[in-house]
Amino acid sequence: MSAKVKSIIIDVRFPVEWSTDENLVRKAIAKELSWSPSDLGDYRVLRKNLDARKKTILAIWRIEAAKSGDRLPPILDSSFRLNALPAGAQEAHIIGAGPAGLFAALNLIKKGVRPIILERGQPVRQRRRDLVNITRNHQVDWDSNYCFGEGGAGTYSDGKLYTRSHKRGNIEEALQWLVHFGADPEILVEAHPHIGTNKLPQIIERMREEILQAGGKYIFGARLLDIQAENGTVSAIRWLDVESGKEQLNPVQKLVLATGHSARDIFELFHSKGWKLESKPFAMGVRVEHRQRLIDEIQYHGKQRGDWLPPASYRLVCQVNGRGVHSFCMCPGGIIAPCATEPDQIVTNGWSPSKRNNPFANSGMVVQIDEQVWQEAGFDGVLGGLNFQRHVEKLCWEAAGQTQQAPAQRLIDFIHGERGRLSSAIPQTSYLPGVVSVNLRELLPHVISDALAEGFREFGKRMPLFLDPQAVIVAPESRTSSPIRIPRDSVSLNHPDVDGVYPCGEGGGYAGGILSAALDGLRVSDQVVQSFEA
Ligand SMILES: Cc1cc2nc3c(=O)[nH]c(=O)nc-3n(C[C@H](O)[C@H](O)[C@H](O)COP(=O)(O)OP(=O)(O)OC[C@H]3O[C@@H](n4cnc5c(N)ncnc54)[C@H](O)[C@@H]3O)c2cc1C
Description:
The protein is of the alpha+beta class. It has three domains: 7-67, Alpha-Beta Plaits, CATH 3.30.70; 91-278 and 487-533, FAD/NAD(P)-binding domain; 281-477, no CATH class. It is built from 14 helices and 22 strands. It is globular. Residues 95-101, 118-121, 146-149, 152-154, 156-160, 222-224, 258-260, 263, 265-266, 329, 337, 339, 349-351, 505-507, 511, 513-515, 517 line the site of flavin-adenine dinucleotide. Flavin-adenine dinucleotide binds at residues 95-101, 118-121, 146-149, 152-154, 156-160, 222-224, 258-260, 263, 265-266, 329, 337, 339, 349-351, 505-507, 511, 513-515, 517.
């Protein structure tokens, strides 16, 4: 920001209907500042929020305002670009081209280190064909699907960019990069920014183009099989060229392991080598889907949305017998997606286009799962949680006919009585491979289904229309976060058993979403750079 301009930062509240009328917004700002409207010069919005708790829905905007005649600099930082790497730049290998791996690559280039990215899946465009194959033909490719492929698990998602991190500088940096690659600059100011599944692939492609131009490298269809170490330090990786079926061996010096929460083979690899892993709690449950119009009606007190209100969302949390039940990754105007990574499982998640204009609203509704749960279900050891996840995913696949059709039930039938009841017909859902009526209350482990049923009843007390007869649940929502942590030193971020390996992002257990994974990529890559300088 230019030091010369005298500006003031304030929060301004006004009826949300005003937000599309520049004159009314200026009037509200001037009033808040006790300035006459003609005294108000340039202004810029730093943050956009909404308060829909009461009938009069308010926009709450954080504004930076200047006096008439003063100009404020744009919020967009035009300095974000990658310079070409010198020929002899140090090299670091990154496994996984999800947000963690890609942001690590951007930061490495910025700091003079050449990233070599190995990704088991396909580039975004090719990946789309593999997604269609899941929906139409029920065929799940082991390496290219909703979780695996360029851009990682979030490429075909709602692209929500929320994080609990408070490191504003880093968040700003990650968002500025996304805008640089083509995201709407509104993400810089929206309190709950999202990009949308129709926009994310182009952003990921532009990112790749710039990384390649700067001298970074990508190898697609490259599945990491083994990590080799000499005297406790990483020395080489063995990987499979999935197209030719040939194995390759590459010497490596630094290895950023950003393989995401679905890379079960990587957890199993660490386990087989006797390298430290830790189990961690996670959450599991179902996706619940309503008509978007109904959610709007609930959240906006029956008001029409107009141009000024986004499709409404909700966040619900309660405790059932000491176990948390909560909504997760809500996708207003979205679609429930088939996110299995292996053929004999059902996994659901959700996505939305940038306009969030599909007629459905879906959300994960999940229960906190800990060691006690998976042990009682007969799954022991550090991989117990992972094996419990796998077990539930397979149960759902078997119950719905061993295709990518998912088991589903009307919400009101799920919460009916002690054990639920089979729905005679399932209303239309957005889940494209199709659904099969199953009594999920009986099918899912009772620790999950009983807590969910109680949770839904509680949410129905808060929002009676939530228990709409047309609302459907589809199962399972099982990949909310990693069931395992790959530990790392709190300062060097190296794995304690193998120097030069940096667990990163959601797979390591250090992130829980696109933005937090990107931030972890920035953090880990800083350590990689420092280790070269040491
Ligand atoms: C449908 C869907 C919707 C989602 N919506 C949102 C959302 O709106 N907002 C949000 O914040 N989060 C969302 N998420 C979660 C989000 O995508 C993840 O939290 C995030 O992508 C994690 O980033 P990551 O880089 O750590 O791992 P990932 O994105 O999982 O990337 C890991 C990459 O590693 C690759 N890989 C795995 N194993 C190997 C191997 N052996 N060899 C080589 N490569 C390998 C994978 O192919 C993958 O590309 C969604 C996820 C899904 C599936």
